Amino acid sequence: MKVIIRIARQELGLLFHSPVAWLILIVFPVQIGVNFLYYIQMIGRAQRMGNHFSDVTAMVFAGLQEGFYPGVKSTLYFYIPLLTMGLISREMHSGSIKLLLSSPIKVRDIVLGKYVAMMGYGVLLLIIICLYGVAGSFFITNIDWQFLLSGAIGLYLLICAYAAIGLFMSSLTTYQVVAAISTLAVLAGLNFVGGLFQWQ
Amino acid sequence: MQDNIVKIEGLYHRYSKDWAVQDINFEINRNGIVGLLGSNGAGKSTTMNILCGVLSQTRGRVLIEGIDMRTDPEAAKKRIGFLPQNAPLYLEQTVDEYLTYCAHLRLIEKNKIRESIDRVKERCGVAHFSNRLIGNLSGGYRQRVGIAQAIIHRPLLVVLDEPTNGLDPNQILEVRQLIKEIATDRAVIFSSHILSEIQATCQDIIMIEGGKIVFKDTMDTFNNYIEPDSLVATMENPPSADTLRAIPGVKEVVFLSDKTVRMRFDPTADIAEGLVETSVHHKWRLKEITLEKSSLDAIFAQLSNKTAKPSIQS
Predict the structure, then answer these.
(1) Is residue B188 part of a domain?
(2) CB-hemisphere CA count at 13 Å for B255?
(3) Do B192 and B253 have their domain in common?
(4) What ipTM describes this predicted complex?
(5) What pLDDT digit, counting tens, does each position of B124-177 carry?
(6) Do B125 and B201 share a structural domain?
(7) Which domain holds residue B82?
């Protein structure tokens, strides 16, 4: 377990040595924030026109077709491949994977260590998402916290699932770009499959 | 019975159809440096990667102190330190950060990590670069950091894959010296395609060519593998070639310059004594005799079934 945590710390350290991790932490909140503002403004405008609403939390955060959370969901699969692309392929390319493979640890520990690192980064993304929930509480009276929380957990689990796919794709090639593109392709494919034959 | 430090039995590996290494068998029973010699693509790195558990062999067994690398890899790897051909460094980290990470990976107890890092830094001469980014170190020092990670957990066996590759002559000498120091209390396997490199550092030699072992013995045996059969003599008043050819045992005489002559002789005859006596008698004023030993290159070429001219080695 200690080794898994150590590998995760190392991976997170390396991730933050590259600009990618920082850039995502800047661009991601801006992109989802624009989305969030759009819904808040829309409700506000309608309210000024004399409309009254109930269940505003669900309207802002998870409308049937659109809303803040579905918006986050559809932006996530652009970012996760950028984070996961180097997890194993970078080590294979530089040869530093031999350090791990010649150490008295299991391959399982290496994979879990890398995965835990991604789960850690996912927590940062989750915090950003939750901050918008907190921001929403300033606009929405009697905000439904449980609803927000369950949505946020769902998104976190989605990040973890995407990270697992990205980690697997990263282990198949020594080229980070190839890993990123193939992860994107798989995630796009899965998103596409989700909408197939779902007539309403 | 005490186990061998390393024992490799019937090792075969293939990446595709052709065997990269086949029927590799050797054992190491004592501390010191064993040279793994072979031309590029001979199978050195494959053998070393398998030995360190980085690559899984197609067939055969690798035993480290009697522990099978396949059945108990963690226990076997605890006893090994490995420096691959490209040092596995993280250029974004400082030397201290990197060695701390390596210490954790090698399962060193937490309270001994600091001491281990200080010890290897001192030993490898990188103590004054503790807080320097590895990416900002020169090639020689990067290699030293690579060696430091390989010995941080006091392994029984250190495997170094072409550690002097790409270094300048001074750095090569420093790294060689470091390897010799490391080998005082453990076994070191050291690979190179440069023959003089192996000759300068190793006590034993294993030669691989085309994926097979073609020679394994001590360095002395290797050096004597081809008997000396020619000498170069320098004389102030050299006689004619015919006169020299008349000395018993001389088979061929070639003048290299006015005063220098190369004589090929029958290895069973003691030509040196005859030459000195005759020289004194006829006042040829013999200044120097250099016995030409077939160099490692010649032996290498012979064992590899290639042709090469012997070069002078005094």
Answers:
(1) yes
(2) 12
(3) no
(4) 0.86
(5) 888 899 899 999 998 888 998 999 999 999 999 999 998 888 788 888 888 888
(6) yes
(7) 6-223
